[in-house]
Amino acid sequence: MIAAFIDEIIMFCAGLWMASVGFGYLPFPGNPANRPPVVRHFKWMGPLLLAIAIVLAAAP
């Protein structure tokens, strides 16, 4: 049970990071020219990961 909460906290933090990078609040580390193409999908992947983490935390 504790491991599940830790997993959900990690997912929540990753979703926050992805959303903030996707919307431009934080810069992506490294050279912008060498950025992987998946970074442009962070705008929807971050909020989706946040929602999944919240739903899993609310489920018994």
UniProtKB/TrEMBL annotation:
The chain crosses the membrane at residues 9-29, 41-59. It comes from the Bacteria. Keywords: Membrane, Transmembrane, Transmembrane helix. This is Transmembrane protein. It comes from Rhizobium leguminosarum.
